Amino acid sequence: MGARFERSLAAGAPGLSALIAEIEAWLDAAGVPPAQAARMMIVFDEVLSNISKHGGGTLSVAIAIADRRLTATVVDDGPPFDPLARETPDTDLDIDDRAIGGLGIHLVRQLMDDVAYARVDDRNRLIFSKTF
Amino acid sequence: MIWSEEARDGAIVAAPRGKIDESTAQDFGASLEGAVGRAADAAARLVIDCSGIDYMSSRGLRALTLAKRKADGSAVTIVLAAPNGVAREILAISRYDKLFGVTETVEAALTA
């Protein structure tokens, strides 16, 4: 038995925090343990707020859970943007030398098992998954 | 995110509760900066009791960065106390556990 969640939202619209709350409630209902759901919510927060800032008309989220594995597909029709092309931040630097930000995608990579980006049909598509 | 704060054993102990993400990071940052200012005025250490934080995204780390820069400029030490497993993992991945003192309990942060 698998569970599936699908929503679309106008990027940059004020509905983002409502969507994030909806995802959180859905993960809970799907039986994801709270500590694992927290890790996933960090990733959704990073990915969705990033897209929301980079513009584009519409973003859509599809999440599937089967056999204790979450797979999420986030698609937006904004300009080409590969978040994974960004360099990994230097986490050895002192506080004064650390870049403000840039850590988000690093957290996404570390918290998920797999993260992949593709530009498909003039859309950005980010797929990430994690076994919990 | 709910923020509460008390003076205790010569330190200021702040206790944010809830999630620190895109929607709450601005409040978190403003509260942190205010607490750094009060700690500086009182020449006190600032202990953040992290036990009520459900999770923290990079927005929260950014707020911590700004607060630490301000704290360093006014000789205030910030200690992160009692983070849960998820928060601890985020601090480790970002290596913020090398930038901040992290303790198991609030009591340990008061005496460290």
From TrEMBL, chain A:
This is Anti-sigma regulatory factor (Ser/Thr protein kinase). The keyword Transferase applies. It comes from Rhizorhabdus histidinilytica. CDD domains: HATPase_RsbW-like. InterPro entries: Anti-sigma-factor_SerPK, HATPase_C_sf, HATPase_dom. Pfam families: HATPase_c_2. GO terms for molecular function: protein serine/threonine kinase activity. Keywords: Kinase, Serine/threonine-protein kinase, Transferase. Residues 16-130 form the Histidine kinase/HSP90-like ATPase domain. PANTHER family: ANTI-SIGMA-F FACTOR RSBW-RELATED.
UniProtKB/TrEMBL annotation, chain B:
Coiled coil: none annotated. Pfam families: STAS. Signal peptide: none annotated. GO terms for molecular function: anti-sigma factor antagonist activity. InterPro entries: STAS_dom, STAS_dom_sf. Residues 1-112 form the STAS domain. This is Stage II sporulation protein AA (Anti-sigma F factor antagonist). It comes from Rhizorhabdus histidinilytica.
